[in-house]
Amino acid sequence: MYEKIWNQNKIAYGGDYNPEQWDEETWEEDMRLFRLAHIDTVTLNVFSWAALQPDEDTYRFERLDKIMNLVRRNGLNVVLATSTGAHPAWMARRYPEILRTEADGRKRKFGGRHNSCPNSPVYRKYSARLAGKLAERYRDYDNLVAWHISNEYGGECYCENCERAFRRWLREKYRTIEELNRVWDTAFWGHTFYDWDEIVLPNLLSEHFDGERTMFQGISLDYRRFNSDSILECYRLEYEAVKKYTPDIPVTTNLMGFYKPLDYQKWAKNMDLVSWDNYPSNQDTPAQIAFSHDLMRGIGGGKPFLLMEQTPSVTNWLPYNALKRPGVMRLWSYQAVAHGADSVMFFQMRRSIGACEKYHGAIIDHVGHEHTRVFREAAGLGAELAALGDETPGTRKAAKAAILFDWDNWWAIEYSAGPSRLLKYKDEAENYYAALFAQNIAVDIIGVEDDFTGYRVLIAPVLYMVKPGLDEKIRAFVEAGGRFVTTFFSGYVDEHDLVTVGGYPGKLRELLGIWVEESDALPEGQKNHFIWNGRRHKAMLLCDLLHLEGAEALASYEEDFYAGMPVLTKNVVGRGEAYYVATRSDADFYREFLGKLCGEAGICAAAHTPEGVEAAVRQNAEQEYLFLLNHTSTEQTVILERDGIELLRGEAIKKGNQLALPPYGVAILKRDV
Ligand code: GLA
Ligand code: ZN
């Protein structure tokens, strides 16, 4: 269970450092301040392409050499970025093909960042070349701990290069135009294609309207897959370029949690380690943040990941950028660690003076010295992490419950015209996640290709798309004793978004022992109700009208013409059970229902805590670390269920004793397994 993901033996602490924006005198001062804050790791060179390559044939590494030597001399580890997240202006002028085209057909000019066409041969050539040159030059730096390819890959492009590449991608996937016509169901609205060159990208000039909505789901779905693959290919080219010189240095790129355009489950298979940037908005709940961490851990197969960026205080891009309250930065840092992070890193170390990020939080503020609240908090956390040493890195979370999450399913659900535009896949999944989170039940977020066998409860909210073999895999899970839960709008289509005819929920019908005949979409605010386990709950969003075909009804609708029809069903199959939740319900229902199910499956809470205090465990074969995280602004007490040593205060605490957690306070209890 112990997994060392990189060459660091403590929780790495630091973040994005942009000395290229400052003079050398400032660099020396930065080093002093880093020491004060116990910073040990810096991410360098994130946006320096224009500085490193002033023209087509010239490369200038002298300033980066100085920076690399400076940080090495000062004992800092380096996460070295390849700088390809923004191309140089001269390149855009000379090769306009590297500029992206928007969904409405507008060709972009130079500006911003993350602005390169992923299918531009020029971009691909020069980005991979730069990555290779960096690796060749800095391969012998023993403080080089990871590669950071580009930066927050994303977006999409609708240029002619992309259109040609899309046709090639389709040809490779479908081989014949007949197969393409079949999977896109082009008999609808006379869309039959006779030649690959008749195919155009689905955007506002063709199939799309009103932002992201589409008239041909199959085409748009394939474009999404293609776009994710295209950008992944750019990453892969750089990956290979650096691996050629530094085969043992792990490679990552900073991801963004639930980022819809890129299929991160596919991406992570190409990454040596997963890293991500945690920027919750002001309204996000602790459960929402934890959900993203668990997704990021899940795509990496459960291994520890890196928290590559978070703000020490404020962001600059929200409508209003509230300060993180005293203690919250520390709390959220430990929350990341509790969910599997082996680093706590920030954007950024020193606040820049120009352009749009000058009011983004940084460890070193414009005032320039260490006497700020933010610096003090950062230095305090730095000291704690230094004292923790090698506790926690490499340990895993152990979960017996899993939520299935799938990008193709996400895209397909939200492209769907009907039954309800209010249906958002992530929100539905989050309802189930939040219910487990509230009860301190560890959960993995896994993909349809992952192994289900270690879990006792598997929840697949809105499993609209059932890819080949998935139904059998779920059946095997249930037959072997697993408890499976799925919901409304599940089992409708195959991997091409073509409906599985013969009755909903298609390939899941037999397993669930039901037939869904119709589904009623309720407008926002409208409700039906049902009684389950002695309590009345809401039914919202969609209400399926279903018939039992072997399953038993656990609850029925109270109102409307389908009053009395089942809303919650259970089917016993083999040694397991398959549940169907035919509507969206309320938080109390999810909590009670999943609590009961996990209880029956013998899944225990990490600890019993007051509302607002999160408990999560990381462990290896010998030790476990129980994190207690007080997300409230008042003091809370937890009664310990076992003896342990509280690592942050260095005290032994006996079973049955009370542990007081100050507002936003944290405790880490080390215990033998
Ligand atoms: C992202 C980027 C950083 C910076 C921060 C600001 O995460 O990766 O370069 O722009 O946002 O929040
Ligand atoms: Zn393009």
Task: Describe the overall structure.
30% of the residues lie in helices and 21% in strands. α10 (286-299) links the parallel β9 (275-277) and β10 (305-309). α10 (286-299) crosses α14 (425-438) and α14 (425-438) packs across α17. The model has no long low-confidence stretch (mean pLDDT 97). The protein is built from 17 helices and 29 strands. It has 673 residues and is of the alpha/beta class. The protein folds into four domains: 12-157 and 226-388, Alpha-Beta Barrel (TIM Barrel); 160-221, no CATH class; 401-600, Rossmann fold (3-Layer(aba) Sandwich), CATH 3.40.50; 613-672, Immunoglobulin-like (Sandwich), CATH 2.60.40.1180. Bound molecules: alpha-D-galactopyranose and zinc ion. The site of alpha-D-galactopyranose has 10 residues, from loops.
What secondary-structure arrangement, pairings included, does this model have?
Blueprint: E1 12-16, H1 24-37, E2 41-44, H2 49-52, H3 62-73, E3 77-81, H4 89-94, H5 121-138, E4 144-148, H6 160-174, H7 177-183, E5 208-209, E6 213-214, H8 217-243, E7 251-252, E8 254-255, H9 264-268, E9 275-277, H10 286-299, E10 305-309, H11 328-338, E11 341-347, H12 373-388, E12 401-404, H13 407-415, H14 425-438, E13 443-446, E14 457-460, H15 470-479, E15 483-487, H16 509-512, E16 514-521, E17 528-532, E18 535-548, E19 552-556, E20 566-573, E21 576-581, E22 583-584, H17 587-600, E23 613-619, E24 623-630, E25 636-639, E26 644-646, E27 651-653, E28 658-661, E29 666-672
Parallel strand pairs: 1-2, 1-11, 2-3, 3-4, 4-7, 8-9, 9-10, 10-11, 12-13, 12-14, 14-15, 15-21
Antiparallel strand pairs: 5-6, 16-18, 17-18, 18-22, 19-20, 20-21, 23-24, 24-29, 25-28, 26-27, 26-29
Helix pairs in contact: 5-8, 8-13, 10-14, 14-17
The structure holds alpha-D-galactopyranose (GLA) and zinc ion.
The site of zinc ion (ZN) has 8 residues, from helix 6.
